Amino acid sequence: MSTAVAVVLLVAVIAYAVLGGADFGAGFWDLTAGGPQRGARPRDLVERAIGPVWEANHVWLIFILVILWTSFPEAYASITLTLFVPMMIAALGIVLRGASFAFRKTVVALRYRRIFGAAFAASSVLVPYCMGAIVGGIASGRVPAGGVAGDPARSWINPTSVVGGVLAVAAAAYLAAVYLVQDARRLDEPDMAQHFRRRALVSAVAVAVIAAAGAFVLRADAGHLFDGLTSRALPAVIVSGVCGVGALVLLHRDASRGARALGVVAVAAAVAAWGLAQSPYVLPESLTFSAAAAPTGTLTAVLVAAVLAVVVVVPGFVLLFVLDRRGLLPAEGLEDEADDVLEERPRQRTHSSGHDGA
Fold first, then answer.
1. Gene Ontology terms, cellular component aspect (predicted)?
2. What digits encode the pLDDT tens for the residues 62-114?
């Protein structure tokens, strides 16, 4: 029973990685788009691509926390007590990111638009880094069992956590770039498709380099995880590598289909490889899933709830994405009031100049 719930938990983590991760990655490209003139069109595409769906993706994070808390309470207590600093930073970053994304569409003053835009973009990098650092702290065995607190600093400021954080940011940027290539083509913006295709290629290479360098770090700092990745999780590692190379080739050839799917599978397989490598431990080498599991009745209720979520929630997600792909949803719930005002001001100045000249 505990194994089944652990699988549900891993599936939810994968869903958050490939959906929420892409939204965070879009924020990375917003951050690096350039100045107001050069970066205007890439930022506009980012807003149109993630506007209708970005709020929904954090459902997976809530689902993960609820499943972990309900099904493996001892592990949940240890993780939250030990890693409360990066978890708090990530939570504040998510709130700041959402507020900034909404407010920068309504403020008129350019100074405030820049402030909100910078907050949105910076938090889009900070949150996935903290998520990766949390995974690194858990995977490297720095969270003790028994529902007690470990070192609040070394648990997430260590070699494995740094690799995990940097890799999470790079993978999110890669996913977002791959998604945005397809979005640009769907919106008939071939120049933006080429813009993000180049960034997808660069970020794919960056992910590969970071992962290769990270293997040496894991061997020295997280032996259990490294051993798992080179044994029981090796098939998932191979699938991730093959799909990543396939996506890279398709992007290089500027193929119109296939790169997006392969990119998603590559990231999903990498996350699955982490889960398989860490198995059977929820806290490596100190607490297994079976030892940390709640009573059987609780686990049964969790599985029933998960099935109901699939039946009730997933169709809503599918409908949301289908409507978005077909262009039947607005990019935002509100019109960009700031753009309207900024467009109106030059007209007023022109009209005023003509009147004065008359």
1. cytochrome complex; plasma membrane
2. 999 999 999 999 999 999 999 999 999 999 999 888 888 778 777 766 777 78
Dist. CA 358–CA 119, nearest whole Å: 46
Question: Which residue segments constitute the domains of the chain, with CATH numbers given?
Answer: 2-285 (1.20.1630.10)
Q: Where are the beta strands (DSSP E) in the chain?
A: 281-283, 287-288
Could you tell me if 164 and 133 are in contact, meaning their C-beta atoms sit under 8 angstroms apart? yes
Burial of 22 (0-12, 13-18, 19+ CB in 10 A): buried
In this prediction the pTM is: 0.87
pLDDT, tens only, 132-188: 999 999 999 999 998 889 999 999 999 999 999 999 999 999 999 999 998 898 888
Buried b (16+ CB within 10 A) or exposed e, 319-340: eeeeebeeeebebeeeebebee
CA distance 93 to 43: 20
- Residue 161, CA atoms < 13 Å, CB-side half-sphere: 18
Q: Report residue 244 as tokens.
A: 């990543």
Render 92-140 in DSSP notation, one character per residue: HHHHHHHHHHHHTTT--SHHHHHHHHHHHHHHHHHHHHHHHHHHHHHHT
